[in-house]
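Example 3.2
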Amino acid sequence: MKYILLLVISVVLFTGCKKEQELSDSEIVEGLKEALKVGTDTSATILNKTDGYYGDLTVKILLPPQADQVMQLKDQVPGLAPLVDDVIQQINRSAEDAAAEAKPIFVNAITSITVSDGKNILFGADNAATMYLKSATYNSLFTTYLPKMTASLNKEFIPGVSAQNTWTELSTTWNNYASTFAGQLLGMNQVNVTLDTFVTQKGLDGLFLKVALEEKDIRNDPMARVNDILRKVFGELDN
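Structure, written as tokens:
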């Protein structure tokens, strides 16, 4: 009886050890990349909808920091306040439009990255994979995404009206008034901002934020693991 008991214990221990060894480094990397792909697909789909950016205060794009004075004094300049509101809505609409282009750009970046410390990422923070992707690919993502955002900023969602045109009208109105005696009394400074660069940066920041939230769901909610590799790899976190 004693030997049978020892045999059973040995089998259990061996099975447990074997289970821990079942997850290879390559599977961990595959699982992390799959989580990022799923997160990107979901995030881009959400942000691509009307009010994806504009209606979500966590990712809504406001005017560039260089235009803080515009926000403070918009009611002092005739006709400026409605232009400010129009620009904010239109740049967010442009970001929502460009989000559709994010999926293949992100998937290419995810596929191309080399993950050398997969276990540390897997057992790291809730956003560890997203932050790794951002640190490894942000510059190349920005370069690829910029022309997509530029095209969206110049797109006329209403005939004759685009975010870029409205921004040009707003900044011209502001700068003209800033050069007047009244503007000088108010201490107004000229505003010169490259809009597409700023909106691309904020658009990507919003995407990464949403991808991080999707990664957190996959890590913490088994129902969010929509395929076998996600269930296998992230199931390790449930142990």
